[in-house]
Write a structure and sequence with these properties.
The structure is a homodimer. Chain A is an alpha/beta fold and about 425 residues long. The first copy, chain A, has twelve helices and 18 strands.
Chain lengths: ~425, ~425
Amino acid sequence: MSRLVMKFGGTSVGDVERIARVARIVAAERQPGRGLAVVVSAMSGETDRLVGLARAAAGEGGNGPVLGGADFNDEYDVVVSTGEQVTTGLLALALRRLGIPARSWQNWQIPVRTDAAHAKARVAEIADEDIGASIDAGIVAIVPGFQGITEGERITTLGRGGSDTSAVALAAALKAERCDIYTDVDGVYTTDPRIVAKARRLEKISYEEMLEMASLGAKVLQTRSVELAFAKGVPVRVLSSFVEPGAPNPGTLVCPEDEIVEKQVVSGVAYSRDEAKVTLLGVEDHPGVAADIFGVLSDANVNVDMIVQAEARQPGRQNIVFTCPDREATRAVEAMGAVRDRIGVEDIHVRRDVAKVSVIGIGMKSQVGVARTMFQALAQKGVNIEAIATSEIKISVLIDAAYTELAVRALHTAYGLDAA
Amino acid sequence: MSRLVMKFGGTSVGDVERIARVARIVAAERQPGRGLAVVVSAMSGETDRLVGLARAAAGEGGNGPVLGGADFNDEYDVVVSTGEQVTTGLLALALRRLGIPARSWQNWQIPVRTDAAHAKARVAEIADEDIGASIDAGIVAIVPGFQGITEGERITTLGRGGSDTSAVALAAALKAERCDIYTDVDGVYTTDPRIVAKARRLEKISYEEMLEMASLGAKVLQTRSVELAFAKGVPVRVLSSFVEPGAPNPGTLVCPEDEIVEKQVVSGVAYSRDEAKVTLLGVEDHPGVAADIFGVLSDANVNVDMIVQAEARQPGRQNIVFTCPDREATRAVEAMGAVRDRIGVEDIHVRRDVAKVSVIGIGMKSQVGVARTMFQALAQKGVNIEAIATSEIKISVLIDAAYTELAVRALHTAYGLDAA
């Protein structure tokens, strides 16, 4: 008996007609000897509506999770989790209408246990016995993504995008052959096709590459879901929910590195415009100063990415440059301003019109000259590099945001990624 | 430690502002030594929206419960039950915003067990231990009405109006001092105030009278909730959710007969226009024919109310008249038409422009001349009586629907019910 987990996001289940289409896609995957579980999101727009109601009831403005009072988040979860429950019932009905045995499984029925961090919980354990026996008996299981219950039997949600993680966690618990994530794109591309017309769909990509892609702004899969797939060894396929049910739909398989025979030096080019560059000028140079600065930033909840340190003109002083998400730049500057005199910083500059461009590839591990190709390609186009960061399988550069498309196209060509 | 159960319907929790108002009403009922549980309906319009989605997914038209396929009703319940869950979370948030400890209790968390008759389940048992301990500790419990779970851990709903029943069942399980049902009227009246300007709010009414009132079309409380309150001895108060929180709001207490000191001969005048009169002419008169006819009607799911039998002109023949809800008249005539020749019925007539007017009062049990007062009052206004039915505490007459208001007003005056 093999098992397959399928996951459909909010756009794919946006109305009753689309849910009927999803039912036909699920029907096309039924085979003798294969059990199916389907993880679904709330119908698009529903989560926003429910979040708005919860915030209004709690007396909070805005549209994000009710984070103003952590004491409120348990009931926020009670409200918001209903969105996915509705979809589970509707999809079960749509499948039965096609004559296919199906039933919904709420998280408390399985159960799916999480920690107690309401509104941003993490899946801890999924009991596979009952649901596993049911799908092995040929009954399609429909499970609400993005949620679970605590040891104390309270409802939790995983935070935005958590449905991908739910699907991977369920696939791991069920020891599924694969987790198919249906989305509004037909796979993972070598870069953003809106920028580079010659971008190609990848047939396979390693977990590690996908992790770098996801965290660098290629918003196909949620980062945590890829981490979990990597840790549990669950093959994940990204494919389109908008092709005809049963039609060819290969998508992109996210899998272990050793299953990729022809390893590209560079598999993809990613970019992110949500970047800000903060420069601390004339920082007093003594041991522990960097630890002090980045401790302050961490306390202020600033996600620091790249860090560059260089000697300043004055002796005994240095300049420290770091990047963070653009929306955190103001917080970062305020936090540094508050400790400026204590730490000894002469001036603080912030630049918000910057972008990060990265090349990613597992082949990089065993290949020299990869960075040189990058720097040459950018230099030929007159793109100035403001900062550099590298990992085993990634090289990132910070550049003027105006050059983003130019840089991405140049790198896509330089690494031989352009489609014929 | 005393306990109070409060219940708010869909109109009372129709938007976030109204939910905030309900929170203030609940706050005003808090007292040292008293635990509170609040049963809520879905926000008005939500259940209709969810029913519409479920029917569309199942491929059924119309707007009622998914009864076309009983096999679909378990998932219908999964979809529809989310409406109340949303309200529980929102009210808990609104109470905490006022600084009042509160939490939602979903039916699976309590648990509230029902039978497995999806979409029209009946409450079987409520575990009071956990929720009872929590409310005794001063935490207001918010419970979704209209639903429960089966022994097999599936979600059920009780059918429309089931929230009143949920509240009474919870009050019985918690051994509450009383169940307060907040609604859009401020109590039970001697008759419909839209018809009789001099109608008075009753301070108290017995369970038996309320049952007759409810089943006769005074739609204040759902019949099953009154039956349950009667059986379990739960005092129920009907009061308005639209007066200022904390302001006087006596409502009407539904209680045992022996708690009503001054028993009125007649407590109220009820009417129903949802009536049809079916006449079977020239029915062959032999033993068992009535059992045959009403067996056929029962099989056709027709709720027969009044029955009158009289000799026909031909010897050996009789005429049989019965009434049923207007929406079942067509079904009744079809069912009788199908067996007409076998049973021996000469002709079938149906009249749909009829109304039933009833006087109700526990004092009737020990009083003579009550019926005569009724017939005289109607005769004086020239109202013709088409059929009569009586119980221990009720006299009903079937009349031409055009005379409904006239008859109700005449009877209200004749029994001395008019306000001074």
